[in-house]
Structure formats: structure tokens, C-alpha cells
Amino acid sequence: MTKQAQYTGFAREIFSQYLDKQIDLDVLITRLRDMELQVMSDADDEEEEETGKRLWFRFFEGDTLATTISDIEKDLADTSHPNADILLRGITFGLQTDELEVHYS
Questions:
Q1: pTM for this structure?
Q2: Distance CA 89, CA 79 (A)
Q3: Rounded to whole angstroms, what are the CA distances from 62 to 34, 44, 66, 90, 93?
Q4: For residues 53 and 105, is the Cβ–Cβ distance under 8 A?
Q5: Total structural domains within the chain
Q6: Which domain holds residue 99?
Q7: Segment 37-88, tens digit of pLDDT
């Protein structure tokens, strides 16, 4: 199981709130981790063995990174680092083009 289309709307909302400065990084990460726990719970209902799987995001078509919650937390923690700007641009572009995808694998 990889693409989690049923969680895309929730992810869009969370990322939009962060970009609009309605929530801070800690709240963003908490909500993403809560979503990951729900996906894991749903997966447990469908499959018996789920070791090593994580939630990750593809922000736009052609995005070759499998950006995890830990990646997001690390990259956005230091807003002066170029990775923060690159990630924010990717998130913004993905939301604008409606290409954000949520995956679990």
C-alpha cells in the first residue's frame, strides 16, 4: 500500500495552515505525526506486517524525493538553511498545482 488519497485533503489543510502562519512548526509536525498514526492504524486493519513503513509526501509531479515527516521537521527547523527554502517552495508549488500526494510505504 503506498498512495493514501483519502489523506490528501487533510495534508493540504495542514500544510496550508503552516504556510499561512496559522500554525507553527511544532503543531505542523504533531498533526502530521497524528495523521501517520491514523494511516498506520488503517494499514494494520488491512495487513499483518507493517515494519519499517513511514508516511511520506510527494509535493508535485516530478518530485523525486520521498519527503518524510522527519525530513520536514529537520529542514524547516533552520529557516536560514537553503533546504528550508527549497522545501517551502516545493510545498507551495504542490498546493498551487494540486499535485500533493500522501504515501505510506
A1: 0.89
A2: 12
A3: 27, 30, 11, 11, 12
A4: yes
A5: 1
A6: 5-58+65-104
A7: 999 888 776 655 556 889 999 999 988 888 999 999 999 999 999 999 999 9
